[in-house]
Amino acid sequence: MKNAKRKTLLWMLILFGVIIYFPGRMLARHHVNDKTAVTDHPLKCTSCHVYTSKNKFVTSLINEDYYSPFNIAVSHDGSRLYVVAQDTDELLIVDTESNVVLHQLKVGVHPHSVILNKANTLAYVSNQWSDYISVIDLAVSKVTDTIKTGNGPSGLTLSADGSFLQVVNTYGSDLSVIDLSTKEELKRLGTGSDPTGTALSPDGKKLYVTSRRSKIVPYGEPLVSDLTEINGETLRVGEHHNIEEAYMMENITFTPSGDLAMMTLIRPKNLIPSVQIEGGWMMTHGIGVIEQGENGRIIQLLTDEPNSYYSDPFDIVVSPDGKRAYVSNSGADRITVISVDSIRAILKETPKEELKNIANNLGVSSRFVIKRVPTGANPKGLALSEDGKKLYIAEQLEDKIGVLDTESLQMEAPIDLGGPSRITVARQGRRLFNNAGHTFQKQYACYTCHPDHHEDGLVYNMAGKDMGRNVTNTQSLREIGDTPPFKWNGKNQTIYKQDGMRFSTVLTRTEQFSYDDLDAITAYIKRGIKYPPNLMYNPHGELTESQQRGKEIYNRTKDNFGNVIPENNRCYTCHPAPLYSNLRTADVSTLAVTDDSILFDTPHLGNIYASPPYLHDGRAATLEEIWTVYGEDNKHGYVNDLTKMQLNDLIDYLKSLGGPEQEEISSQTQETASF
Amino acid sequence: MFKKSPYTSFIPLLAIIVLVISVQSCKPRSLEGMIVMSQSQGDIDSPDYLSGNRWRHIPESRIVALNVNSPEEPLSVLTKDFQSACAPKISYDGNSMLFAAQQNKNDVWQIWEMDLHNLKTRQITSSDGNCIDPDYLPGDRMVFSKHEIINVATKEKGYTLYTSNLDGSNLARITYDPSTYFASTVLNDGRVVTIGRTLIPEVKDAKLMIMRPDGTKQQLFYQSEANHHLQGRVWEMDEGSIVFVEADANNEMDITSISYNRPLHSKVNMTSHIKGDFYAISPYQENKVLASYRSDKEGRFALYGFNTQSHELGTPIYKDGEYHVLEAVPVVKRDRPKKLPSEIDLNVKTALLVCQDINYSNKQSNDSTTLTNRANKLEILGMDETMATFETEEDGSFYIKVQADTPFRMQTLDGNDNVVKGPSSWLYLRPNERRGCIGCHENRELVPKNAQPLAVRKDPIPVPSPKEIDSLKRDLKM
């Protein structure tokens, strides 16, 4: 009897399982097909429900805290490396003999650069998400002081006599000059947009600051970025040089003799219909060389080759003898070794009228590139030992410091910083995001158009149907995980679809991501990309009086004359907190004659101040222009009754908006990404 | 009753495992690690580079397997059932081989695939024209050359490129210009590189052309000196070079290396110091290729190893008094190339071409005297007639909509309709293909300047198809 009961129970369980399994599987298939827009994505619940989870317990299990080394300095005697660990907010002090991390010093949030004073007694670390410099006494290996800066401190230089610290403020687009005797900001000088790199000439007379974003111009006009030249002695802005057809000038350096300054750059092709990749049709990468003699020419040279591209050049350093330059190609996992003498020869023989053509010639690199040296994932900052024999490479997504023997040009054993050995799904996604390997001929990475996982400020001709139609403003990827649908027309319900088959057909034009890789990059984009704290417009989480007034206008239901504003024309209807998007599409009367007839996705407004130009085709250079120039019919919010002061208040409020977490977490204690 | 042992239920399972192992061990030996090569006793010294006879399809050739680990073992003839067989290509997993063969004398050459475990063959193509030079494409497809009419008016024939599934289905023609194409190879980046030779209006020297597997974005990959012949398939080495055999004007056949990164300006003759000729090569081991070589023109080609770093020829791997060793390939697994997505939409009958500046050349002259020679018109030439002539935009740009899969050439004209440059080589665009060029430039290493062409601010200029032109002509006559 017992056996019969057991058998019956067993059969019932099997029957129950079958009843659940088949319809369940069918439902799951339907669900996954809907999310991924394909019919063969593996039915793995973990893809969405674990890897992109926001649950703290789950995220603590699936993620790791990586160091993510970003920049380095090396001591005069070569015995110590000072490594900026961007994701743990630390400065790591490494013994180069034993390759051991001696000290881990907590600095500010999201540190960017480190510089040593001449005596090697102090280190200065710029903290991009804290707006201050950490001062470290190297004798005791302790942070002894902090110095307030402008917004988003990044690149650092010391004046020739060591009395001033010059700090590039990326978000503020200016340069803070710090008097180190008083540790006070002496002055702030305007630079180009989104600067990071800076270098002082060997004679101390000239200081350059490079910008990453180009000047905002109407679509179709030539792309120009600013190289700011500052008198190193008077600390006054001397000249703003126009660097044509280039942007993302990340870093700059001088040759030891001071005859040349050299910077990294990208030459994008955003004005050309994006119909192919072949022939450098989308992105090219190279260096800018600034002659320091009478000629003062600025020449651009591509480091790419006709069938091979070396994306996202980041740092550049020159050997002590001035013969070689080393460029880190972050998207290609390569160091490009350059003969500076060959560049001098090219400069000598190239007439000025041919400069533009030489900047578009993929064959020129064969004249000056000595070698491409493979590195670990995502090489960023470089530092040469004082004798020039070793090049240290911050391999950001490898959690290691690569070491290049500059005589043999062979990589030595890397210095392991001791980070997690496990590569999490999101970390793999971050690697994919930063690597150009998933684009035809490695011409560009996701990062190239989305630097800092944000956007590059350019409007591209994506050639949707015909070639002159549908120009689109690059969108920020910060905190977009909960703001579907995606793309300006909202046609992609998930990031799986956004980065799936069509993405490879029209954008990367090579084999699509494997489903494992698609899971990884989706996990990273959904949960790994954070807003920097909005310290510029909302440093303490409290609104100013103007912002308060702006908030009231944002939330108003009646106009200045007491008339009820139709619900669809109220700001908060389409842009409700905390995401500031209702996740729907709308017609806001911005369709251009060159656009296909579509509705537009309602973008979120977090850190909107950092994303000019505005509107889907970037036609509005500023937030103000959205309404003063393009909002005449009140369809994009009811604003035409506003006074100028009221509009200013509204703009002030919009600029104060951060991420959904802004109001809950103090910006100073905001956690950094752990991916 | 006999009490059941708890292990009784495992007995059938054990039996199944034993059975599976026995069946597995009875399977025919794979050719893994062996070298497969084509051989011929006949005349290979008078190849017809136009028809491919005695070059890409060789009468009475055969494919054999050589066990390099036991040289005393006789060759195993793999294509006993065929009159002729050549051009072996091994799949990425090393399990099968594509080849071209004719079963009986005077049969049409077809593409076949052999399972390298059981040596069974199956016919893939059933064509009325010769099908030769197959290579595997990712996604269980292949690319090959097929003999057919390339000019309907003159009935002139040549080899066009096709792709198909490995069962012969989903056949797709991918080249549409009056050129003949041989010896295709799929590169790691997923593109097809092939020996192309223009036939109309006159026969031109062969070049290496490269295109996506759907035929889009075809462009020049490598051009040798005048009167040189590209002898056979190209191969991509692990370190990024492309190697192949090239015959010079004196018919001296050497191994040439070019860089994938910069193919037009990186040629190295690796065997100029070696007396004798090379027939074909393929990658073998690190920095080593299999090479069919003979020291004098009277002798027969034998199989050697050649070091691509030291440029040294090794001792013979295999020699045969009766047969030439032609194309030899090792039976090994190799990396699968990228599977490229396709932009083709067969429901669309047209394609778009944008050009940035027809006057864009290597050197931008500031000399005003040259302005009179600047072109401001473009003429689109079809096979037999002008298809369209129109003025270009002020910046030299044009934007046209052409009939897909229709060959055309272009030439630029000045204000007096004098030809400034051209005609260009043949172009064709696939359905829904969108393509850009920077101008009629001599330097193919130039990238576009970052400037919006004025032409794309307007609708594309439609270029009528030859059929539409004929219809228009008929209407005018009426």
Relevant terms:
heterodimer; A: 675 residues; alpha+beta; Methylamine Dehydrogenase, Chain H; 4-stranded antiparallel beta sheet; 32 strands; 20% helix; 28% strand; B: 478 residues; mainly beta; Neuraminidase; Immunoglobulin-like; 2 domains; 2 helices; 38% strand; globular; 6-blade_b-propeller_TolB-like (chain B); Hydrazine synthase alpha subunit middle domain-containing protein (chain B); HZS_alpha_mid (chain B); Cyt_c-like_dom_sf (chain A)
Mean pLDDT across the residues of chain B is 91
CATH architecture of the largest domain in chain B: 6 Propeller
Cα gyration radius of chain A (Å):
26 Å
Would you count the extended β strands of chain A for me? Answer: 32
Main sheet overview of chain A? 4 strands, antiparallel
Say what the CATH topology of the domain at 191-374 in chain A is. Methylamine Dehydrogenase, Chain H
The number of helical elements of chain B comes to 2
CATH architectural group of the domain at 191-374 in chain A: 7 Propeller
The CATH homologous superfamily of the largest domain in chain B is named: TolB, C-terminal domain
Strand content of chain B: 35-45%
Q: Helix coverage percent of residues of chain A?
A: 10-25%
Number of helices of chain A: 15
Please provide the count of β strands of chain B. Answer: 33
CA-CA gap between termini of chain B: 104 Å
* Proportion of helical residues of chain B: under 10%
CATH superfamily name of the domain at 191-374 in chain A? Answer: YVTN repeat-like/Quinoprotein amine dehydrogenase
Q: Note the overall shape of chain B.
A: globular
Protein name (chain B): Hydrazine synthase alpha subunit middle domain-containing protein
Region (Disordered) (chain B): 456-478
Domain Hydrazine synthase alpha subunit middle (chain B): 381-442
Biased composition (Basic and acidic residues) (chain B): 467-478
Q: Describe it for me?
A:
The complex is a heterodimer of chains A (675) and B (478). Chain A has 675 residues and is of the alpha+beta class. Chain A has a domain at 191-374: Methylamine Dehydrogenase, Chain H. Chain A has 15 helices and 32 strands. In chain A, strands 1-2-3-4 form a four-stranded antiparallel β-sheet, with no helix packed on it. In chain A, strands 5-6-7-8 form a four-stranded antiparallel β-sheet, with no helix packed on it. Residues 665-674 of chain A have low confidence and may be disordered. Chain B is mainly β and 478 residues long. Chain B has two domains: 35-330, TolB, C-terminal domain (Neuraminidase, 6 Propeller); 350-477, Immunoglobulin-like, CATH 2.60.40. Chain B has two helices and 33 strands. In chain B, the strands form eight sheets. In chain B, strands 16, 17, 18, 19 and 20 form a five-stranded antiparallel β-sheet that branches. A four-stranded antiparallel β-sheet of chain B has the order 3-2-1-25, with no helix packed on it. A four-stranded antiparallel β-sheet of chain B has the order 4-5-6-7, with no helix packed on it. Mean pLDDT of chain B is 91; it is low at 364-372. The interface between A and B is large, with 49 and 47 residues.
